[in-house]
Amino acid sequence: MADAPPPLSDDARTRVEAAAFRRLLSHLNETRPDVQNIDLMILAGFCRNCLGDWYRDAAAAEGVPMDKDTARAAVYGMPFAQWKAMHQKDATPKQLAAFEAAQKKHGG
Questions:
Q1: Domain assignments of the chain as residue spans, ordered by start
Q2: Least crowded by CB within 10 Å, which of 14, 38, 47, 102?
Q3: How confident is the model over 17-61, as pLDDT tens digits?
Q4: Where does the pLDDT of residue 4 fall: very low under 50, low under 70, confident under 90, or very high at 90 and above?
Q5: Which CATH architecture has domain 36-105?
């Protein structure tokens, strides 16, 4: 059994979490822009838009009001409309059916 990692200070933990979040965004937006948000929702129950909502919620918790478009731009690395035009495809009937099934399964 592996030893537990050494505890991180709050500051170090924040830096590590921020780096992991930035790497996730890079992976989703630069390495895998072909992965559609609907597929993320079907498989994981969240998508890039959810990350934008969580980002906005975290900003609000810090006393920084942020609108949806600003939060999404922070996640997508560009305005959402621009990313959508470049990368988002229309959902297929198969994707829509899988999404509906996933929503029912998870109580969404």
A1: 36-105
A2: 14
A3: 999 999 999 999 999 999 999 999 999 999 999 999 999 999 999
A4: confident
A5: Orthogonal Bundle (1.10)
Structure-token match 């009001």, residue found: 65
Average pLDDT, the chain: 93
- 95 burial via Cβ count (<10 Å: 0-12, 13-18, 19+): middle
Q: Do residues 90 and 84 make contact, with C-beta atoms less than 8 angstroms apart?
A: no
The three state secondary structure string of the chain is: CCCCCCCCCHHHHHHHHHHHHHHHHHHHHHHCCCCCHHHHHHHHCCCHHHHHHHHHHHHHHCCCCCCHHHHHHHHHCCCHHHHHHHHCCCCCHHHHHHHHHHHHHCCC
Cα separation, 61 vs 47, in Å, equals 21
pTM: 0.85
